[in-house]
Design goal:
This protein is of the alpha/beta class and 280 residues long. Helices cover 44% and strands 15% of the residues. Helix 4 packs across helix 5 (174-183). The protein is globular and about 55 Å long. The protein starts with 14 loop residues before the first strand and ends in a 9-residue tail after the last helix.
């Protein structure tokens, strides 16, 4: 059964809705469609809460992140962000600004650290902080009408924000990332696919179906194998040597091969059936 639970009130700011088509999947939808799901303090707080709740659920294996209406996320709401939690307790304006910055940037850190695979279902424009959410996700699939932009430098700050200066060069290469961050130009889904930011692009009407197929493919992997593959692939981008990366892989293989779910994966791989995992 699908359950939906808004974590904030639309009348007072951004909200997210969380639905669960099954115990292993959470769908988190940013809901501020009249502002293309632009981030304010309430929406960021709601996203933190929804992601933390998914992370704490041992049965949840995949999180799908998307936006309501015709936008994914237009980035920071330039008409007013609001105050993050405990802002009034900060000693001065610089401290409050730093607290706000950390609250927003903490979203991509949370996405990267959580064991669940995070899929961005990019249904429309993803700019600034929206682009950062896309980059932080593990798999990214977009509708043909999706538009992307770094945007940060155009509002008077640097193009290096919310982890984009680290993530984007690793996804599309330094040369292309530098051009996109320095110019903040818009680029469409076709270009995003060509440069390697996206795994696939489909017509908007087919986006949910395409993501559902991806989720089904992900769930064929044993739970620990899926979580450690996510961890290992991101760690390998930071590990300074080939031999160190291989040693991480060696330990992951030993851990996963000792699980009961590994035997089930092997059985269904040979038979072609659907696996039933028990998280052990």
């Amino acid at each position: 059964m699908t359950t939906t639970s808004p974590t904030a009130t639309p009348a007072t700011g951004g909200t997210v809705a969380v639905s669960s088509p099954g115990p292993e999947v959470r769908r988190i939808e940013m809901r501020r469609p009249e502002r293309l799901n632009a981030m304010d303090a309430e929406m960021v707080g709601a996203l933190h809460e929804a992601l933390a709740d998914a992370e704490a659920d041992p049965l949840c294996r995949v999180v799908v992140l998307t936006g309501a209406g015709r936008g994914f996320c237009a980035g920071l709401d330039l008409n007013g962000y609001g105050d993050p939690p405990n802002a009034a307790a900060e000693p001065g304006p610089i401290h409050r600004t730093l607290g706000t910055q950390r609250q927003i940037a903490g979203l991509v850190q949370r996405i990267r650290r959580m064991p669940q695979v995070v899929v961005s279902q990019v249904n429309g424009p993803a700019a600034g902080g929206g682009l950062a959410l896309v980059c932080a996700s593990d798999v990214r699939i977009a509708a043909e009408e999706a538009i992307f932009a770094s945007s940060f430098i155009r509002i008077g700050v640097t193009g290096c924000d919310i982890g984009v200066s680290w993530m984007l060069p690793r996804l599309v290469g330094a040369g292309r990332a530098h051009e996109l961050m320095l110019t903040a130009r818009r680029f469409d889904a076709a270009e995003a696919l060509r440069i390697g930011l996206l795994a696939d692009v489909v017509p908007g009407a087919e986006l949910t179906e395409r993501v559902d197929r991806l989720v089904a493919d992900l769930l064929r992997a044993p739970p620990l194998s899926l979580a450690l593959t996510k961890q290992g692939m991101w760690m390998s981008m930071e590990i300074p040597s080939f031999d160190a990366a291989v040693e991480v892989e060696n330990r992951q293989q030993v851990l996963t091969s000792a699980t009961e779910d590994r035997a089930e994966a092997m059985r269904t791989y040979r038979s072609g059936g659907a696996p039933t995992y028990h998280h052990r």
